[in-house]
Specification:
Helices cover about 65% and strands about 0% of the residues. By secondary structure, it is mainly alpha-helical. It has a two-stranded parallel sheet. The relative contact order is 0.12.
């Protein structure tokens, strides 16, 4: 069975690595055993990780919303079929949305796992003082667990696909290193997948 730490290390986006949950630091803290000092240190690390993840997520969402808004505005001003510079930013954004979805999933999984480990290491299981359920409820309210990314996907579909008369329908190019993910993104957005003929 692959540990979460290995999963995080192999799936995180390298240039975002400083923005992920500090799972290993929290785990190392808990491994010192139950004490008021460990509880205090863990709580600080947990809050710092939440702040880091939420801040990064919100900055990326703002960046994506800006790119989509600029592309939409430029498309409205341009002639049919005419390339606009904002199109490049839009496609860059479009590619990165799936990576942000993976980022959300990895961090959410980490927060859930570390709280389960907290109850075990702090010997709270079966005492009625477990924190896992309380923290799970709180986790669901955090900004990075919200629906903004789904809203961006919906807007990307509307803006990219446009109406049939726009002359610029958006299509995804197949042939990525992860065809299942490419197909999932295509399906989510309702945008057809073109086969890439790479020689």
């Amino acid at each position: 069975m692959v540990s979460y730490s290995m999963d995080l290390g192999s799936n995180r986006k390298e240039d975002w690595k400083q923005h992920y949950i500090e799972y290993d630091k929290m785990k190392a803290s808990l491994n010192r055993g139950p004490s008021p000092e460990v509880v205090s240190e863990f709580d600080v690390l947990y809050e710092q990780s939440l702040s880091t993840v939420n801040g990064f997520y919100q900055s990326k969402v703002a960046e994506y919303e800006q790119a989509l808004a600029e592309f939409e505005s430029a498309s409205e001003r341009s002639d049919k079929g005419e390339y606009v510079p904002e199109e490049r930013a839009f496609f860059h954004t479009f590619r990165e949305v799936a990576e942000l979805q993976t980022y959300v999933w990895l961090n959410a999984t980490g927060f859930r796992k570390i709280m389960k480990k907290y109850d075990k290491r702090m010997e709270l299981r079966g005492t009625g003082k477990e924190r896992q359920q309380e923290m799970e409820s709180r986790l669901l309210m955090e900004p990075f667990m919200g629906s903004k990314l789904e809203a961006i996907l919906a807007k990307a579909k509307a803006v990219g696909a446009g109406d049939e008369g726009s002359g610029r329908p958006l299509k995804l190019i197949g042939g990525s290193g992860n065809p299942e993910l490419a197909e999932e993104i295509s399906g989510r957005l309702g945008i057809p997948m073109l086969k890439a003929d790479i020689k």
